[in-house]
Specification:
2 domains, about 300 residues, Spore Coat Polysaccharide Biosynthesis Protein SpsA, Chain A, 13 helices, globular, alpha/beta
Length: about 300
């Protein structure tokens, strides 16, 4: 097999003020024998993200000029890709060449699978399985209401569901997009990622599209990758929650109808209102203020 034939993955990275982490992301895949090109789209960063990428010899660096969100950035990068597979790699994520090869091998071997991802390890050593069940109004709202979460099955998989006798891989509803290997032909035929999602839920959406087309998602439990998380939101919980709420509203409306989206928003606003009351009672005024704004439908934590 020639070198070009073996290099069957184009890496797609979308950056936004990612200068502090992007070097590790690019370096982790730069020497992989499976990687053909590294394609970066910079979403109008105010730092040196684009410069760092060029300095690290990314093959293509596109400065979008405006921040239209993660999905739009991926689609812009996808237009430059020509390899059989694309790796969606967050700028705060890393994956070693042998682990990437493991993902590629599993995806090639399973003709029904369209997406594959590893188990994610945080910078603090924490483990995130990187897979969830498809969203419903109940399981999403339950994440914010502890009592409801105890009474219902949330979107999280149990460890036994993922690490049973599965031969190092297991089919899941959807995979987190931090480190996600995708059959490029499938992604192109699907029209890329839905650009209505600015951040969050685009990974679940594309997995639902895969299922609608008779394809599936594989969590490769024998592979691991690193992921810091929440860098683009500067770690602010209110921004993260606002963006997640808006993304889940779009998702549930698309796949379950407007009534589901409305019920979800009502449930989330009630959950944030209850959290605000608890925070105020405990003297956490800033948290209470942010949560109250979320309960009233404020976006972006502003």
């Amino acid at each position: 097999m020639s070198d070009m034939q073996s290099r069957s993955i184009d890496v797609l990275i979308v950056t936004y003020n990612s200068a502090a982490t992007i070097a590790q992301a690019i370096t982790s895949v730069r020497d992989s024998p499976d990687v053909n090109r590294i394609i970066v789209v910079d979403n109008a960063s105010s730092d040196d993200s684009a410069y760092v990428c060029r300095n690290l010899t990314a093959d293509v660096v596109i400065e979008s000029g405006t921040n239209r969100g993660f999905a739009a950035g991926v689609n812009l990068a996808l237009g430059e890709a020509d390899s059989p597979y694309v790796l969606l790699l967050n700028p705060d994520a890393t994956i070693e060449p042998d682990m990437l090869h493991g993902l590629l091998t599993r995806l090639r071997e399973d003709e029904t699978a369209a997406l594959a991802a590893p188990v994610l390890h945080g910078s603090d050593g924490s483990i995130c399985y990187g897979a969830r069940r498809f969203s419903t109004v109940t399981n999403r709202v339950s994440l914010q209401i502890p009592l409801l979460r105890k009474l219902t099955r949330g979107p999280e998989y149990r460890e036994a569901d993922l690490f049973g006798d599965a031969g190092g891989q297991v089919r899941v509803d959807y995979l987190w997009g931090a480190v996600l290997l995708v059959d490029r032909a499938f992604l192109v035929e699907a029209g890329g990622l839905d650009e209505r999602y600015f951040m969050y839920s685009e990974d679940e959406d594309i997995a639902r599209t895969a299922v609608s087309r008779g394809r599936s998602s594989l969590l490769v439990t024998s592979a691991v990758a690193g992921h810091v998380g929440a860098v683009s939101s500067a770690g602010r919980r209110d921004i993260i929650l606002a963006r997640q709420m808006e993304a889940n509203r779009i998702l549930l409306g698309k796949w379950h109808g407007d009534w589901s989206a409305r019920a979800y928003l009502a449930g989330m606003r009630l959950a944030f209102f209850l959290q605000a009351i608890v925070a105020a009672a405990r003297g956490r005024r800033e948290d209470a203020h942010s949560l109250m704004r979320l309960s009233r439908g404020a976006r972006e934590g502003g």
